[in-house]
Amino acid sequence: MKRFFTNLGIVQIFCSLLLVIGIMYVSNYFVFKNSISGIYEKVAQNNTLAVRTMIQSFDNSFRSVNNIIHTIHGLPYSSLESEEDGGIDMAKVYTMQDSIASLASSVDFIEDVIVFYDDMDLAITSAGTSSLSQLFENKYKHDMYNENYWRSYIRGKNSFKLMPGQYFKVATNSSWQRKKLMVAVGGNKIRISNKNIIVLIDEAALLKHVNQKLMIPGASLIVLDQDRSVVLSTDADSDLSGVLDEVYFNSSQEASLKKEDYQYNFYKSEFNDFIYINKVPYKFQNIDSVVEANEMIMMSAIICAVLLSVLLSLYLNRPVKKIIRQLGGTSRAMISVKF
């Protein structure tokens, strides 16, 4: 019977320690869960503010491109023909080239500005002049965007168009460089001048200019033009089928939609009717691995705590009995009983 009470004392001490461990585990688990939720809500709010700032930067960037196009249309020399012999007046060409170079250099994400005329094979750029055919063969090479494409495009009546980024082979001083360029083409439905204007935009430089890194990991931004065609996306999967049909903008030109594992926040620009879509995950990217790692740490701590509790139970059993005996506890009589 003495062994029984001794074992019972060890079990009681062990259970007391185990109860403390259980309470600590449950408390830490709920603190961890609530902390993750709270942090995510705060980060999501900051992401919303960051995206609004990015959208404002995008609007200002597109406004700058539009202003450059209108400024070039306002330059003199709607015709480059010489009044004397009907040939090309190179003085006019050089004057226009200086103006274009000055305008292009004022915006850091502009790769180049190209100006050409319907009846001439001359292309004036910020870097110099060449024939339009040689420019797209020897400087900006692309399988589709060649001289014939642009001649055909200009013959149609089009409004301002921003084309999504495509990879061009861009010639440098010593080699070819692969670069993703967006193309902005001035509208010609209402002819302001005889100039045809193409603005090449470095997509990577544009994203750096608007500070893409402000978004939280896992979030992305998709830009649609006035025709709801994707012109820029930081998401590898920019399929919006079935999403736009469910969107209704409020008076502030904003909307929100939850679908699958993401929330889509829509913002409509007042400048050019572009639509900006911020695609945000419900939780942090790779949060599952963080949760699993935290649970592994907590389980390891519990196992170690249980083993430690067993050792402490054996170690503390005799000192605890002595303390109770000195305090006049009833366990003295129970432990001294012999059968």
Jot down its keywords:
single chain, 339 residues, alpha+beta, Beta-Lactamase, Profilin-like, 3 domains, seven-stranded antiparallel β-sheet, five-stranded antiparallel β-sheet, 47% helix, elongated, disordered N terminus
SSE run:
HHEEEHEHEEEHEEEEEHH
Would you report the number of β strands?
12
**Helical fraction:** 40-55%
Number of discrete domains: 3
User: What's the overall average pLDDT, rounded?
Assistant: 80
Shape: elongated
Flag low-confidence runs. Answer: 1-5, 330-339
State the separation between the terminal residues, measured CA to CA.
7 Å
Characterise the protein shown here.
This protein is α+β, with helices and mostly antiparallel strands. The protein has 3 domains: 1-70 and 286-339; 75-208, Beta-Lactamase (2-Layer Sandwich), CATH 3.30.450; 219-284, YNR034W-A-like (Profilin-like). The protein is built from 7 helices and 12 strands. It has helices at residues 2-74, 90-105, 132-138, 147-155, 203-209, 287-326, 331-336; strands at 110-116, 122-125, 129-131, 140-141, 161-171, 176-185, 196-202, 220-224, 230-233, 254-259, 262-268, 275-281. Strands 3-2-1-7-6-5-4 form a 7-stranded antiparallel beta sheet, with helices on both faces. Strands 9-8-12-11-10 form a 5-stranded antiparallel beta sheet, with helices on one face. Helix 1 packs antiparallel against helix 6 (287-326).
